[in-house]
Amino acid sequence: MLEVGYLNLDNPIVIISSYHNPESNGSAGLLILDGFDLDEVSVSEIDHSLKNVDSSSALGISVTCSDDEPIVEAARIANKNLCLLELNLSKIRDTVRLTELVSRIKRCGTTLSIRARPENLSDDLFKAL
User: Fold this and answer.
1) pTM of the model
2) Is the dihedral of CA 76, 78, 84, 87 positive or negative?
């Protein structure tokens, strides 16, 4: 068993699935609901999606947004539901913003993962990770 923050993963397999149609038969240790662009969907969609998941796997949610407040609210929801919060850096380009945002998320008590693709990283952002 792998423990990451408040998450207990029975195995190291992760499935990343659309939050509209999550698929998991419970064989994964972690099921991440992907695609919550909080510039396009409301934070309440996260709660709705989590309630509709039928899986014995630990859960995670992947979010991005051009504003910090919806991300922090998503962090509170993740903590309340004992989910991993995956922060997708596709809309976060500023090192100072990332550093401050990570601090705010961690103050929520949330277990955090960061998704960083090379095309989304400036040299300063890469060094901050």
Assistant:
1) 0.88
2) negative
